[in-house]
Design goal:
Blueprint: H1 2-20, E1 23-32, E2 35-36, E3 51-58, E4 62-71, E5 82-86, E6 89-94, H2 99-102, E7 107-113, H3 115-121, E8 124-132, E9 139-140, E10 143-152, H4 154-174
Antiparallel strand pairs: 1-10, 2-9, 3-8, 4-7, 4-10, 5-6, 5-8
Helix pairs in contact: 1-4
Length: about 180
């Protein structure tokens, strides 16, 4: 009877651990270097075509993803009007005559993607694309992608193992 009680407690502990969804989070940080547009385009254009300025690798199991960077870089502190896309998702925009366009220091931007966004990106290589929307040259600083991927925590695995041993003890206790 004592083995059966211990086994029941072990199984209960394992089930509580699994139900709580306890997991560790592993960070994966990727960067793309500075980008300077191809041509100084005078108003009203023509503007540079959409340009892939880098790629990021989206991992299976990502639970959170934050992308951040700068309008302007070490060459020039501001940028032409530009839209920044990660895959098909607009993650940043510098609008003509705002601080990112006229500023004396690079302007930071950041976007955190939702689970729906992550699902639409899928896994694997995703392009970071700049689409010029006004005159002059697109200038971007370093862009960073910070991914958080859920991984089983060692204590969760330990509780699961205890639960399996508890079930085995229950089985043996019945014989």
């Amino acid at each position: 009877m004592k083995i059966r009680s211990i086994a029941i407690y072990l199984v209960a502990a394992a089930l509580i651990c699994l139900a709580s969804g306890v997991s560790a989070k592993a960070d994966d940080i990727q960067t793309v270097g500075e980008y300077n547009g191809i041509v100084d385009s005078g108003d009203p254009g023509p503007f540079d075509p959409p340009t892939v300025v880098g790629t990021f690798n989206i991992l299976a199991g990502d639970t959170s993803l934050t992308i951040s960077g700068f309008f302007g870089n070490s060459v020039v502190p501001n940028s032409s009007g530009v839209q920044i896309f990660l895959g098909s998702i607009l993650v940043a925009e510098c609008v003509e005559f705002t601080t990112c366009y006229t500023g004396l220091t690079p302007t930071t931007w950041s976007d955190t993607l939702t689970g729906t966004d992550l699902a639409s990106l899928g896994t694997g290589t995703v392009d970071l694309t700049a689409v010029q929307t006004s005159q002059f040259t697109v200038r971007l600083g370093v862009t960073t992608l910070d991914q958080v991927t859920a991984t089983p925590e060692p204590s969760s695995l330990a509780f699961l193992s205890l639960g399996v041993f508890g079930l085995a003890a229950l089985k043996l206790g019945k014989k």
